[in-house]
């Protein structure tokens, strides 16, 4: 099975194909998407199928995704890692505001601890660097939370290669979340840094936010047909083949799509298929969704 295991921070093993929770909340990451029972059922099904990494954020809902995780999964089974994020505040659908002052980060972390019903968060990710606050102060606040035993590992969301290099001079970084998929390789330099330092790379929009299926690229459809699989499953399988530090955690609100996504771990691509898929991004530039993801 290609999925394999990656050790977060060098010591916390997770299966590389996880679950994102943006699909459990409404459009613009605001409010509920459906009933709480349906969301809890999906979370439970994911863990029963072997998912050991769940990626969420305090502002999904806001607060709703973390609440649902605790309702569905607490007390958490051994080996399950729930990664969450802080560092932004919300004022409406798709409205995000950086909030990286040390006192804000501590308050957000403490609130996530209460919602998730834990004493320590295994992976706490800074959702954005706040341009109004020195990077050293933001990283210092996270390091203090780690020293206090409130978080186990620090991650970063949406960073440039220079920012990651600078952060690594201050504190160990266990994970990075940047956009990366078959059509968007804009974070290739960041991925290379992650590989060099053993940092998990959790690609967001691993399915291109629907772009992969809309494009109907011949190489993707031919590989999918050869495996009797959907284009989405092949796109996830490619990520697992592409780099050993890539840990895609696609979000969904559908049990059917959850099953399809997780089946990608069993797909073995040939060297020729990987070569065909690698070529998809050439000449396309960086493709990103117009609506910001935070």
CATH architecture: Alpha-Beta Barrel
Low-confidence stretches: 285-292
- Provide a count of the helices: 11
Name given to the CATH homologous superfamily: NADP-dependent oxidoreductase domain
SSE arrangement, N to C: EEEHEHEEEHEHEHEHEHHHHH
Radius of gyration: 18 Å
Helix amount: 25-40%
| Alpha-beta classification | alpha/beta
Keywords:
single chain, 294 residues, alpha/beta, 7-stranded parallel beta sheet, two-stranded antiparallel sheet, 11 helices, 11 strands, 16% strand, globular
Structural description of this entry:
This protein has one domain: NADP-dependent oxidoreductase domain (TIM Barrel). The chain is of the alpha/beta class and about 290 residues long. Helices cover about 40% and strands about 15% of the residues. Strands 3-4-5-8-9-10-11 form a 7-stranded parallel β-sheet, covered by helices on one side. A two-stranded antiparallel ribbon has the order 1-2. The chain has a two-stranded antiparallel sheet with strand order 6-7.
Q: What's the helix and strand layout?
A:
Blueprint: E1 5-8, E2 12-15, E3 19-20, H1 36-48, E4 53-55, H2 64-73, E5 81-86, E6 88-92, E7 95-98, H3 102-116, E8 121-126, H4 135-147, E9 151-157, H5 161-170, E10 175-177, H6 188-197, E11 200-201, H7 211-215, H8 218-227, H9 231-242, H10 255-262, H11 271-278
Parallel strand pairs: 3-4, 4-5, 5-8, 8-9, 9-10, 10-11
Antiparallel strand pairs: 1-2, 6-7
